[in-house]
Amino acid sequence: MASIQANGSKGHHKFILTVTEGTQSTPNNTTSVSYKFQIAPIQTTWNWEQWGAYIKYSFKVNGVEYTGSIDAYDGYSTVTLKSGTQTVTHNADGSKSISYSFSVTDTSGVTYTSGNASASGTLALTKIPRYATVNQSLKSRTETAITMNWSADATCDYVWYSLDVGKTWKAVGSVNAKSGSYTISSLKENTSYQIVTRCRRKDSQLNSSSAGLNITTYNYPHCTKAPDFTIGNSVTLEFYNPLSRTIGIDVIGADGSTILTASISGTSRASAGGETSVANLYKSIPNSKSGTYKVSVTYGNVINTKTGGKYSIKGTEVPTINSFTYSDSNSTTVALTGNNQHIIQNYSNLQVQVGSATPNFSAGSIEQYTIHYNDKVKIGLQSGSYDLGTIDSNRNIEVTLTVRDSRGLMASKKITVTMLAHSIPTAVVTLERLNNYEDESYLTVDGSVASVNSKNTMAIKYRYKVSGGSYVSYVNINDRQKYTLSLNKNNAYIFNIVVTDALGSTFSKEYVLEKGVFPLFIDTVLNSVGINGFPTSELNLFVNGSIVVDSGSNSNGTWIKYYDGTMICHQLVKTGNYNTATCCSQVTWTFPVAFKELSSIRAFAQAKGGNEYAYFTLVSVDYTNSCIVQLKGMPQAEIRYIDTSGRSVDVMAIGRWK
Fold first, then answer.
1. 244-276 burial by CB neighbour count: b if 16+ within 10 A, else e?
2. Is 584 or 423 the better-scoring residue by pLDDT?
3. Which of 115, 406, 433, 636 could form a disulfide with 364 if both were Cys (CB 3.0 to 4.6 A apart)?
């Protein structure tokens, strides 16, 4: 309660305004305020009647004005002029301060009335409890639950929470505290929630909410890093496991088989070579060099699987070749050499024996056998014997076996094959008449066969016939032995010489025994000489029927032929009229005898007489029977030295006539 008072200006009376705080409505944030305005005597007996029209009052409480007049006063009593109540609304925080005042105006003009008076004052109302200030923070979280801490600046009696920024609310329950915690369950893993906590203030029963807080539940444990690796090398798998759960790990190979099973409570797992998983990894890719693995993580009933990287073999896991040998499968050649490891060139049949190869590190199978030999290749799909046929080589060769497994890995093994050189028999045959003319004739055959490690043998035979006739029967002879025959000197004979070795390889060739011819014959009729033949023309020397030197001339010049095929032609020609515009004159020379081939011809020319510094000659040979001879002049100033009607040129050509 509060009151203000003031004395009237005439000194006989006083005025009192009393304001009393009444009941409060917390929900409505209001207070009921009563007021009372009174007049009381300072000195008694000062009274009046019927002056109300001249004595007026007004007062305000919290801005609300009340007015009235004082018509009469008895001069003795304290009289309440006006009283009542009003509802005052507090500020939002529950506080409120009100002002109140009064004013009395006396215009009666008499001395016994109150006179003028005024006063004012303020009253702070009792503060009404309002909203609590609420804060929240994360206490803990799991994959499906979040536990929140809350606190308020006043005691609260009920708590709620919202997962969607206050759109919907779920009750936590009754409390009687300024702080606490609550747990939200049945949430979804790896999901963000906008959490708001609401508290009801106990004294005001008003609800207050905290600021929103974005909180994400943990994901279930899973693999975060599964890198590529080479089998046998260390590899580290990394996991998301923030709560250090005890989790089960299964590494699954490319074929769906389980490579490794383990249990951890951390965030990584290192695996090194030497574990059982290495063998399992090889088994999972029997037909490939690499595969893609998966990592499965189990926690409770939840399983997360991640496709990992690539795991690869080292490339050194090649198959094993157990055996690889060779032999000669031709019984005839083996009988000759006495050793099936000796292969006769072009006769033995080379056979290789391939033992079963073993795939390593759980490879599926051996897919191919490849044999390389003497620039040839033979491919097979299984072990066993392979015929490579005859081998054309006079020196040892290498045969390489390469096997390929189902992963594409290859291994090779080489063997050296001992070769025995073999060639067709040859012979040097001497077949001649006594004095190159008599009936008595001689035959010697110097045969040669391949050694075949000194195991080869040789047989020689011959037969002959008169040219144009039939052969007589074969006659066997010995190597390098001279045989004497009597064959008519007037006939030419054809001999067939045959040399055969132990393998049936044969040399066969025909040789001619010519008719008997004098070594030297002088023809007194033709005045010519024949050596090993008769001359056929005058004044010539013939050797074996051919002229050693021959010469002649005609209108185109002279020529000389030599026994070795060389021919020289010569002529003195005269060029045509000199062309002063082109500084040139020329003539075509037809050879007295045509040459055999153009490429062998070389021609030369020399002008006769005149100023030797004023011109030069040029010969062009484009045909075997002629050439062009040109006379080229020097610059214009020198033309005076040249005979414009042409000039004689000495020209020579050298080439082949046979």
1. ebebebbbbbbeeeebbeeebeeeebebeeeee
2. 423
3. 406
Q: What are phi and psi of 142, to 5 degrees?
A: -130, -165
Q: Cβ–Cβ contacts within 10 Å for residue 384, how many?
A: 12
* pTM (predicted TM-score): 0.56
Q: In what order do the strands lie in the sheet with 584-590?
A: 584-590, 626-633, 615-620
Residue 632's alpha-carbon distances to 605, 614, 637, 649, in angstroms, are: 12, 9, 14, 12
Q: How far is residue 557's CA from residue 567's CA, in Å, rounded to a whole number?
A: 13
Identify residue 585 by its one-letter amino acid code.
S
**Is 486 exposed, middle or buried (CB count within 10 Å of its CB: 0-12, 13-18, 19+)?**
exposed
Indicate the pLDDT class of residue 646, thresholds 50, 70 and 90.
low
pLDDT category of residue 636 using cuts at 50, 70 and 90 = very low
Task: Please tell me whether residue 583 adopts helix, strand or coil conformation.
Answer: coil
Listed residue (526, 568, 521) closest to 549, CA to CA: 568
Amino acid at 251: V
Is the separation of the CB atoms in 169 and 182 below 8 Å? no
User: Measured between alpha carbons, how far is 10 from 22 in angstroms, rounded to an integer?
Assistant: 35
Side chain identity at residue 654, one-letter code: I
Tokens 């004005």 belong to which residue?
65
C-alpha span between 571 and 557 (Å, rounded): 5
Output b/e per residue, 58-91; b: 16+ Cβ within 10 A. Answer: bbbbbeeebeeebeebeeeeeeebbeeebebebe
Adjacent-strand bridge partners of 403 = 369, 411
Bridge pairing between strands 258-264 and 247-252 = antiparallel
pLDDT digits (tens, 9 = 90+) for 110-138: 999 999 999 999 999 999 988 999 999 99
Q: Rounded distance, CA 21 to CA 408, Å?
A: 102
Asked if pLDDT for residue 500 goes beyond 90, the answer is yes
Closest CA to 333 of 318, 348, 316, 354: 348
Inform me whether the pLDDT recorded for 273 exceeds 90: no
Instruction: Provide the b/e sequence for 407-416 (b: ≥16 CB within 10 Å).
Output: bebebebeee
Tell me: pLDDT of 529 over 80.
no
The mean of the pLDDT values for the chain is 90
Query: Among 353, 351, 346, 352, which residue's Cα sits nearest to residue 420?
Result: 346
Domains of the chain: 2-125 (2.60.40.1470), 134-216 (2.60.40.10), 222-312 (2.60.40.1930), 320-418 (2.60.40.10), 426-513 (2.60.40.10), 520-547 (no CATH), 552-656 (2.60.40.3940)
Give mean pLDDT, residues 188-215. 95
Burial label, 440 (beta-carbon count in 10 A; 0-12, 13-18, 19+): middle
DSSP-assigned letters across all residues of 248-264: EEEEE-TTS-EEEEEEE
Given this model, what pLDDT does residue 275 score?
61
